[in-house]
Write a structure and sequence with these properties.
49% of the residues lie in helices and 7% in strands. By secondary structure, it is of the alpha/beta class. The protein folds into 2 domains: 192 residues, Rossmann fold; 167 residues, no CATH class. Helix 16 crosses helix 17. The chain starts with 16 loop residues before the first helix and ends with a helix.
Length: 451
């Protein structure tokens, strides 16, 4: 069995290469300072996209394993032709969310990851560290006081860190230190008229930070790193980040006004917010994950016909892992023309309940008669009061009722009108499949339980 993990990948299984190339070109040719946002829901593949973007800009991605980096060669792994002056630094924001000042952790990562040894200065590494430290720890003009002997600079810098951590310089002086330090470390244009070398900082998992940490980091970027040699890429769920900002901007009793101010704050900081393309054919993506599973095509045909899956790569991978171990139980039914369609439909119903609606699944598992209640809910049967487990569960359709209390047939397009968000999780996407299949026997319920 080929179970799928949730690790980020350099392989573009979601067909986002055109989007990646366009964004990569913008990053390489824009006029810094710039802040780009890469928006996507949790599980939409933001980290994989950022890894692929990192590779596209510089031809490598140190966050990936050595084997993955070695495999990322040849067709489909071209490097941006405009990015020879780009250096990329990676920052996982959530790892540092409990730091008092997350911007300090970011600057430490910049200092650590920059390719020191490629610089022309004989003592470039040590001098560069102190230059960054002088900005990071707001120490003014350290190098002028102690000369250029690298060992003494290192020693004095470390001692000063411990003694003067709380000292603060004006923000414009910190920015000046940083700009000069980064210029020294990034080097000069390769030829006259060439773009100025730039540092591209990719900030991943910003939306996983606690709201205070996310807000502090954004404030630090805005105040200290608005530099003409810096471009920031923020991987984020825009709604989550706006909610975090709304908790910390000046208070107002009007929730709508706070939300508006949060949106305006993010718009001012982030000039370009790119929304990752939605996964438009979840069933096709699922079929690719089920290579080697007998009769997977029959199951995926049902899923495609009824649009049973959320448009979320992570959730579909987890569902594929379930099907890997589940579908093989029903090979005989899937192989027989007389039972193939019904078998595939029952597989989809019970596997989707198990994976996406465990509360409903447990009730069916405990008492097979609850399936009839579920079927009644899918048809909006007025004679059956809703069970509490259905509260908050979204429908894909609500049949229209006549004056005589009869449900009118639901035409195809209206089944999808109720989708607020194709990636939203709490929608019973198998509703129409349940309704079309109708009653099932107790034996079928018992036979198709996953566990």
């Amino acid at each position: 069995m080929a179970f799928h993990n949730d690790e980020p990948t350099l392989f573009d299984s979601l067909n986002r290469r055109p989007t990646l190339q366009r964004i990569g070109h913008q990053i390489a040719t824009c006029d810094p300072p710039q802040v780009f946002g890469i928006h996507g829901d949790w599980g939409a593949g933001k980290t994989s996209f950022l890894h692929q973007l990192h590779h596209y800009l510089v031809g490598d991605c140190p966050q990936q394993s050595q084997d993955a980096r070695a495999s990322a060669k040849g067709p489909g792994f071209d490097v941006c032709p405009d990015a020879g002056h780009v250096t990329v630094v990676w920052f996982e924001a959530w790892r540092y969310q409990h730091e008092e000042a997350p911007i300090v952790a970011l600057l430490q990562e910049i200092r650590t990851q920059l390719p020191w040894y490629s610089k022309a200065l004989g003592q470039g590494r040590k001098l560069g560290e102190v230059a960054i430290r002088s900005a990071l720890l707001v120490f003014e003009d350290l190098t002028k006081k102690i000369g250029i002997q690298a060992s003494k600079i290192q020693e004095t810098g470390e001692r000063w860190e411990k003694e003067n951590l709380a000292t603060v310089l004006p923000s414009h002086m910190i920015r000046q230190h940083l700009e000069h330090s980064l210029d020294a470390l990034l080097g000069q244009p390769k030829k006259k008229g060439a773009p100025r070398p730039r540092l591209v900082v990719m900030v991943d998992d910003l939306d996983r930070c606690e709201s205070a940490a996310a807000y502090k980091l954004l404030e630090g970027i805005k105040i200290y790193l608005n530099l003409p040699n810096c471009v920031f890429i923020l991987g984020m769920n825009q709604k989550v980040i706006e909610g975090a900002i709304a908790e910390h901007i000046p208070k107002t009793d009007d929730p709508a006004l706070r939300a508006l101010r949060a949106r305006e704050y993010l718009d001012k900081l982030c000039q370009n917010i790119e929304h990752l393309p939605i996964l438009r054919q979840p069933a096709d993506f699922l079929l690719g994950l089920l290579a080697g599973v007998s009769h997977a095509d029959a199951v995926c045909d049902v899923i495609k016909q009824y649009r049973c899956l959320p448009s979320n790569a992570r959730k579909i991978k987890a569902y594929a892992n379930l099907l890997h171990r589940y579908v093989s139980r029903f090979e005989a039914g899937l192989a027989a023309p007389a039972t193939k369609d019904r078998t595939a439909r029952l597989i989809v119903i019970f596997s989707c309940l198990y994976q996406y609606h465990p509360d409903l699944y447990r009730l069916v598992e405990a008492d097979s008669k609850f399936y009839l209640r579920l079927l009644g809910w899918s048809k909006a049967d007025r004679a059956l009061p809703d069970h509490p487990v259905f509260q908050g569960l979204g429908r894909t359709s609500m049949p229209q009722w006549t004056d005589k209390g009869e449900a009118t047939p639901t035409v195809e397009p209206s089944w999808f009108d109720a989708f607020a968000d194709p990636a939203e999780g709490n929608i019973l996407r198998i509703q129409r499949l349940l309704s079309d299949l109708g009653p099932v026997t107790t034996t079928e319920v018992e036979s198709y339980l996953v566990s």
